[in-house]
Amino acid sequence: MRVTAIGIGYLGLTHAVCMADLGHQVLAIDVDEEKVAKVARGETPFFEPGLEPLLRKNLDAGRLRFTTSFAEIGEFGGVHFLCVGTPQKSGETGADLSYVYGAVNALAPHLTGEALIVGKSTVPVGTARDLLAHAQALVPAGTRVSLLWNPEFLREGFAVQDTLTPDRFVFGVTADEAGARADAVIREVYATPLSSGIPAITMDLETAELVKVSANSFLATKISFINAMAEMCEASGADVIALANAIGIDKRIGRRFLSPGLGFGGGCLPKDIRAFRTTAASKGVDSIVSLLSTVDDINLGRRERVTTLAREAVGGDLAGKKVAVLGIAFKPNTDDLRDSPSLDICMRLAAEGAIVSVHDPVAMPQAARGYPDFRYADSVHEAARDAEVVLHLTEWAEYRAIDPAAVGQVVAQKILVDGRSALDAGAWHAAGWSVHRPGQPPMPAR
Ligand code: UDX
Questions:
Q1: How confident is the model at residue 419 (pLDDT cuts 50, 70, 90)?
Q2: Is the shortest distance between the CB of 243 and ligand 1 below 6 Å?
Q3: Burial class (CB in 10 A: 0-12, 13-18, 19+), 236
Q4: Residue nearest to atom 31 of ligand 1 (CA)
């Protein structure tokens, strides 16, 4: 089939590459000429495991091309995936929909014959129906445009896997013949993954939009719940990890997304729950507003809590103290710094006068460009040299292989704050470190 992808950020580029890998002919567009030139050379503009080889494979196979021309997109094919971003509005909690509307405005006048727009971006409920009306008003006479909402649930670090073999497909359609046709077309596009038994649920447009924001809100709530329990454990001398392990065995609860620590960050969860809260407020649904406000407050409180652990570890005053930070990406296996809890903590530490020395396996070039005031170290040992406290803030697998005795040789003080409770605390403690973890009793140096 001939499909297009509009926007080549995390979502759009991954989607374009994966659609080509399913055997479709794909043309993808972005307004950023530099980005288009880069991906056309086979280079991904961000770190995502497995994506670059797949991009090259499909460029070489001639199934994937890139452009900056909407006229070419309109002419190319009948199924257009809308993959542009919906970031948080500057200074407000709501979603900025200007890219979504901008894309439809630019695309619609070039559509011909039977055209289907498939929305993948995360949008406030009601946007899809409005976009359809908008597109219908803009298409040339004789063009029939329909719209289907197919929210994306991909996780960074697993983007290819989540696109090609998601847990489920959700198809939001209009309750008319055009909706039934759109449903048939999208099932043809995804015929390969659907044939392997992945569930696909067809529903109305509004429910499909809400499925996405409710999934992210549920995940965020789960993380904030365990972080609230971490606070309770600290107040009671209990251990939140033992607690999470015990309640997680209950299948109704489940252990995943019950890891306490710095809380959630990234380009999706924080802005999506804020946008959803804004939508709920506009509809007078106070229960959602208060639930998500609490979830957000608990989450942001974690960053202050870990900063406090660091301050207390160096004797109550961070000014002039060298702090080593391991991991600056918002989570492992990405170089994404958007709303990174670790980056936020680095800024808090620096604001209190600490000398922040950062290591991250992949996100350092990105961080150094945006935040030149931190020191960047090529190795864990270099970051830790003469540090008064070592903060483990992004749980890259390679940090679990650190030899605590060897790092202990280069620091000024053997104090570890494991903000993710992901290191082997027993091994660090045995090597003479005092270990502090949110929600767990401290392990003073022996
Ligand atoms: C998320 C959703 O998982 C995905 O379905 C949606 O499409 C986009 O948003 P992503 O932003 O890639 O994906 O990250 P995710 O793996 O969900 O992690 C989000 C944040 O929560 C990270 O900062 C992570 O460190 C944190 N987290 C996750 C916890 O603090 N504790 C946990 O137990 C799990």
A1: very high
A2: no
A3: exposed
A4: 259
User: What is the rounded distance in angstroms from the CA atom of residue 190 to the CA atom of residue 362?
Assistant: 33
- Residue 368 near residue 337, CB atoms below 8 Å: no
Say which CATH architecture domain 300-436 belongs to: 3-Layer(aba) Sandwich (3.40)
Ligand 1 atom index nearest CA of 341: 23
State the catalytic residue, choosing from 18, 83, 233, 268. 268
Check residue 78 and give its pLDDT. Answer: 86
Strands, sheet with 415-418, edge to edge from the N-terminal-most edge strand: 375-376, 355-359, 322-326, 389-392, 415-418, 434-436
pLDDT tens digit sequence for 15-64: 999 999 999 999 999 999 999 999 999 999 999 999 999 999 999 999 99
Q: Do domains 213-299 and 300-436 have the same CATH topology?
A: no
Residue of 86, 218, 223 to mutate, ligand 1, most atoms within 8 A of C-beta = 223
Looking at the domain 213-299, which fold is it? Answer: N-(1-d-carboxylethyl)-l-norvaline Dehydrogenase; domain 2 (1.10.1040)
For residues 233 and 258, what is the distance between their CA atoms, to the nearest angstrom? 14
CATH of domain 2-198: 3.40.50.720
Q: Which numbered atom of ligand 1 lies nearest the CA of 153?
A: 7
Q: How far is the CA of 264 from the centre of ligand 1 (A)?
A: 6
Domain boundaries, the chain: 2-198, 213-299, 300-436
Q: What is the pTM of this model?
A: 0.96
For residue 267, report the distance from its CA to the centre of ligand 1, in Å. Answer: 9
154 lines ligand 1 (CB under 6 A): yes
Over residues 357-388, the pLDDT tens digits come to 999 999 999 999 999 999 999 999 999 999 99
Per-residue pLDDT, averaged over 318-331, amounts to 97
Give the type of residue at 100. V
Closest atom of ligand 1 relative to the 216 alpha carbon: 2
Q: Is the distance from CB of 146 to CB of 181 less than 8 angstroms?
A: yes
Q: Is 83 a catalytic residue?
A: no
260 lines ligand 1 (CB under 6 A): no
